[in-house]
């Protein structure tokens, strides 16, 4: 059933209830008013009959008083006098109402009609004997006629009111759903477009319609966010596949060549065979490192706010540095916590990846030019707005022209030798963005490179969009 039909039927039902209630009340009040008027006429008739002159004539039997025949031309009022023994003493055109009748007002049936009767007990005048009953009555036909006419009028007006209410409800429903029809058209327009940023207009109708439009917009926002996350996941998958193909082609080709050489030359000298096997193992390690780095990159691109949690940053940095020192015993890694920041909301795994790659990069490329072990200093500080993580090495540093480029994937600094995937600093830049921060490279005070990561203390979690 349409909303207009519901409004029309509701209006009609409400009108029927009101008409019935008002009709019952009006009929009751009218009946009471007519009956009170009739009772008043009977009381006036009694007053006339029992006046001294007419009553004395009546009880002395001289003549039937004129007053017994009634005093109003528009209302027939009859009277009769009943002796104490129950016999009728005198009557004038009184209906066949049985004797006795209770003293006071009553409604009796006689001659096929309803009669209103007033019975009063009156003493005879001195010398006239015992008490007598005086009854006056009037037909209730006029009351019934008035009530019948009123019923017909109520039915007629009620039928008209119900019909008018139905029509009015239908028209009102048409007006009321006009904003909904507009909202439906806007929703259809949104459903026909591929642009999920389109929103349904608000402030176009009543508050209820505006609330519905706002709810639709919230739903569209969530759909857009879901679509963006899905697209990000798809892009991450495509990027992962492309990066894998880009990074793994060379080591796989090298491994295949070496294995073919081993298979084709079973009598190779031990030294050459060991060299080839060592190269295969090195390429296999490179493959594993590249796959792990690519996995972390793909996970970072899909980092969601629910991964973030309140974390003791000093404890996290201390644990990561301790693990790095155990992994690189040939290097000296020092932790300098100038001012330990309060607990902040971060992605713990992401920050471990960031710091681990900074330390690995410093240990790998931060050895002094004259040789010796690498010395790496990890500093943690904060101010009122952000926390600052700095990793400094004593190596050759990174040329100013390369400081932006090395944050790209599979990018390495000019002149860098040795193993590496070119993904370490890309992971650092990604995690800095995930935490709504930034990363910069400059020269260390004593020579070498200094990488600085800054992020706000009140960060509540980045988005995959920020990460990408």
What features would you describe in this structure?
This protein has 2 domains: 163 residues, no CATH class; 165 residues, Histidine kinase-like ATPase, C-terminal domain (Heat Shock Protein 90, 2-Layer Sandwich), CATH 3.30.565. The chain contains 10 helices and 12 strands. Strands 2-1-5-4-3 form a 5-stranded antiparallel β-sheet, covered by helices on one side. Strand 1 and strand 2 form a beta hairpin.
Query: So what's the oligomer here?
Result: single chain
Instruction: Fill in the CATH topology of the largest domain.
Output: Heat Shock Protein 90
**How far apart are the termini?**
50 Å
Number of strands: 12
Main structural class: alpha+beta
Poorly predicted spans: 460-468
Based on CA atoms alone, the radius of gyration comes out at 54 Å
Helix share of residues? Answer: 40-55%
Query: How would the global form be characterised?
Result: rod-shaped
What is the typical, i.e. mean, pLDDT?
A: 78
> SSE string, helix = H, strand = E?
HHEEEEEHHHHEHEEHEEHEEH
Strand order, main sheet: write it out: 2-1-5-4-3
User: CATH homologous superfamily of the largest domain, by name?
Assistant: Histidine kinase-like ATPase, C-terminal domain
Reported for the largest beta sheet, the result is:
5 strands, antiparallel
What is the architecture of the largest domain at the second tier of CATH? 2-Layer Sandwich
Name the beta content range.
15-25%
């Amino acid at each position: 059933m349409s909303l207009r039909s519901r409004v029309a039927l509701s209006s009609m039902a409400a009108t029927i209830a009101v008409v019935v209630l008002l009709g019952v009340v009006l009929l009751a009040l009218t009946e009471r008013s007519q009956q009170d008027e009739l009772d008043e006429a009977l009381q006036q008739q009694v007053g006339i009959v029992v006046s001294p002159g007419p009553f004395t004539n009546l009880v002395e039997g001289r003549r039937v008083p004129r007053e017994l025949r009634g005093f109003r031309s528009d209302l027939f009022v009859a009277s009769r006098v009943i002796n104490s023994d129950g016999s009728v003493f005198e009557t004038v055109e009184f209906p066949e109402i049985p004797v006795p009748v209770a003293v006071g007002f009553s409604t009796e049936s006689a001659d096929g009609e309803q009669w209103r009767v007033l019975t009063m007990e009156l003493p005879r005048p001195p010398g006239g004997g015992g008490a007598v009953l005086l009854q006056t009555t009037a037909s209730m036909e006029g009351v019934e006629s008035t009530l019948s006419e009123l019923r017909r009028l109520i039915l007629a007006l009620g039928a008209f009111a119900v019909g008018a209410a139905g029509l009015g409800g239908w028209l009102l429903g048409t007006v009321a759903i006009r904003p909904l029809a507009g909202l439906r058209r806007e929703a259809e327009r949104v459903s026909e477009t591929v642009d999920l940023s389109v929103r349904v207009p608000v402030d176009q109708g009543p508050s209820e319609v505006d609330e519905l439009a706002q709810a639709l917009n919230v739903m569209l926002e969530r759909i857009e966010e879901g679509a963006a996350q899905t697209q990000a996941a798809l892009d991450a998958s495509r990027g992962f596949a492309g990066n894998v193909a880009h990074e793994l082609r060379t080591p796989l080709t090298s491994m295949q060549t070496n294995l073919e050489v081993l298979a084709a030359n079973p009598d190779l000298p031990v030294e050459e065979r060991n060299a080839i096997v060592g190269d295969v193992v090195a390429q296999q390690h490179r493959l594993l490192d590249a796959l792990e780095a690519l996995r972390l990159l793909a996970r970072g691109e899909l980092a969601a706010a629910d991964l973030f949690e309140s974390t003791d940053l000093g404890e996290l940095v201390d644990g990561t540095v301790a693990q790095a020192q155990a992994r690189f015993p040939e290097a000296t890694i020092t932790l300098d916590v100038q001012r330990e920041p309060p607990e902040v909301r971060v992605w713990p795994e992401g920050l471990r990846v960031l710091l681990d790659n900074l330390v690995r990069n410093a240990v790998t490329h931060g050895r002094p030019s004259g040789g010796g072990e690498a010395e790496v200093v990890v500093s943690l500080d904060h101010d009122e707005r952000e926390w600052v993580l700095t990793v400094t090495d004593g190596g050759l540093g990174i040329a100013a022209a390369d400081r932006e480029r090395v944050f790209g994937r599979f990018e390495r600094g000019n002149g860098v030798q040795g193993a590496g995937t070119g993904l370490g600093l890309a992971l650092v830049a990604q995690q800095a963005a995930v935490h709504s921060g930034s990363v910069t490279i400059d020269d260390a005070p004593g020579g070498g490179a200094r990488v600085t990561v800054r992020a706000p203390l009140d960060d509540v979690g980045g988005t995959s969009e920020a990460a990408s």
